[in-house]
């Protein structure tokens, strides 16, 4: 055990409103990641699912849901919840399992299918709420504002070359994993027109409700 953990493969279902189950989206992403890594489902020793919790919505058993959809094969299963930071916490759980010697290959999956109107803004003016003011005055969501602020502080460093949540929407348990997918493609040099020249180190930042936060650093 070297203390280093590698991202072997990354996969993502296209983002959009497709009208299908989050399980389908997650399994497509999982199979794409396995294919990208060049390994089979039977080689996976643990599955960590990022949760979403809405009344009666079965995302709260995400790890088991995805393991069942891919076909039970004996891998250990875990699920984590940290609101919008769930995906990064799932990655952290996978890393901890690897460093503890519990598994050598871990699959991390997050997917969502938000109900219509779930992200509709609350009514009424809230001039004492800086988040509300940023959105009302600038049209900037929190992720967009964070990206602009980071760009100001970090000068020439590219921020959100994929457009971030402002361009492809929010899927609560998947968004932090999507960030790591983007870092992986950037560090491989396979990010097409949004490629940052010579990228060798990248960092993600994500904030979840109830004080959850996450950051992932990736090095080529």
Quick recap of the structure?
With 220 residues, this protein is of the alpha/beta class. It has 7 helices and 5 strands; from the N terminus they run αβαβαβααααββ.
Notes on the protein architecture:
With 220 residues, the chain is of the alpha/beta class. Helix content is 36%, strand content 13%. It has seven helices and five strands. Helix 3 packs across helix 7 (175-188). The model has no long low-confidence stretch (mean pLDDT 84).
Shape: globular
Major sheet: 3 strands, parallel
| Helix-and-strand structural type | alpha/beta
Q: Looking across the biggest beta sheet, what order are the strands in? A: 2-1-3
Instruction: Summarize model confidence as the mean pLDDT.
Output: 84
Task: Spell the H/E element sequence.
Answer: HEHEHEHHHHEE
Number of beta-strand segments: 5
Low-confidence stretches: none
Quote the distance from N terminus to C terminus. Answer: 19 Å
The value of Rg in angstroms is 18 Å
Number of helices: 7
The helicity comes to 25-40%
Strand content: 5-15%
What order do the helices and strands come in, and which of them pair?
Blueprint lengths: L21 H16 L8 E5 L11 H9 L5 E5 L5 H14 L6 E5 L19 H9 L3 H13 L10 H4 L6 H14 L12 E7 L5 E7 L1
Parallel strand pairs: 1-2, 1-3
Antiparallel strand pairs: 4-5
Feature tags:
alpha/beta; 13% strand; 36% helix; two-stranded antiparallel ribbon; three-stranded parallel β-sheet; single chain; 220 residues
């Amino acid at each position: 055990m070297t203390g280093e953990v590698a991202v072997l493969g990354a996969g993502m279902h296209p983002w959009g409103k497709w009208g299908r189950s989050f399980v389908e989206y997650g399994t497509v992403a999982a199979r794409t990641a396995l294919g990208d890594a060049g390994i089979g489902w039977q080689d996976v020793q643990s599955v960590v699912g990022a949760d979403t919790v809405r009344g009666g919505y079965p995302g709260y058993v995400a790890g088991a849901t995805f393991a069942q959809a891919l076909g039970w094969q004996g891998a250990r299963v875990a699920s984590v919840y940290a609101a919008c930071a769930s995906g990064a916490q799932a990655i952290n759980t996978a890393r901890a399992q690897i460093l503890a010697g519990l598994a050598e290959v871990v699959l991390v999956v997050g997917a969502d299918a938000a109900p219509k109107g779930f992200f509709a803004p609350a009514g009424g003016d809230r001039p004492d709420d800086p988040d509300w003011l940023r959105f009302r005055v600038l049209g900037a969501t929190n992720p967009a504002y964070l990206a602009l602020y980071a760009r100001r502080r970090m000068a020439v460093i590219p921020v959100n070359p994929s457009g971030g949540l402002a361009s492809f929407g929010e899927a609560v348990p998947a968004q932090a994993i999507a960030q790591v997918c983007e870092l992986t493609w950037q560090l491989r040099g396979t990010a097409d027109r949004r490629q940052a020249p010579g990228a060798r180190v990248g960092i993600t930042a994500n904030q979840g409700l109830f004080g959850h936060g996450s950051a992932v650093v990736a090095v080529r």
